[in-house]
Amino acid sequence: MQEPSLADDLHSVRITTDGVRAGVTLAGHEVSASLSGYALEHRANQPPLLVLYVRPPVDAAVFDGYAQVAVASEVPPTEAIVAFLAGIDPSRLQQAALNRDDLDGSPTELTTAMLRQLTEWAGGRP
């Protein structure tokens, strides 16, 4: 039998932001000073999930309470990658690759140019 996890329970969360800085209150405890960031995800038919990216403590713990806990992963989210690639128009990609200034005449230049173009698009560059 699996033991219950903090992530199994829901807890009161309040996030306020001015567009640059955010205030995060968890179960009545202000925790913003302990965070380097957060991600709030809400999928259909599921409760919202708040992932907290915690700063290493400087001298002592600032937060004392319960929270729904999720471990942030540096592994790229598969669903996002699949959705990004599925949304690529092949003819637009090919044309963008052929219009690049860094084509080098090698046998793999088109493939290389397409990969560079996808990398730039994934990074938000047009």
Describe the protein's topology:
Layout: E1 13-17, E2 22-26, E3 29-30, E4 35-41, E5 49-54, H1 78-86, H2 90-98, H3 109-122
Helix pairs in contact: 2-3
Keywords:
single chain; 126 residues; alpha+beta; 2 domains; three-stranded antiparallel beta sheet; 3 helices; 20% strand; elongated
Describe the overall structure.
The protein is about 25% helix and about 20% strand. The chain is of the alpha+beta class and about 130 residues long. The protein has 2 domains: about 1-70, no CATH class; about 80-120, no CATH class. The protein has a 3-stranded antiparallel beta sheet, with no helix packed on it. Strand 4 (about 35-40) and strand 5 form a beta hairpin. The longest helix is centred in the last third of the chain and has 14 residues, at about 110-120.
Number of helices: 3
Q: What structural category arises from helix and sheet content?
A: alpha+beta
List the uncertain runs: none
Sheet of most strands: 3 strands, antiparallel
Tally of domains: 2
Report the order of strands and helices: EEEEEHHH
Q: Can you count the beta strands?
A: 5
* Rg from Cα: 21 Å
Assign an overall shape. Answer: elongated
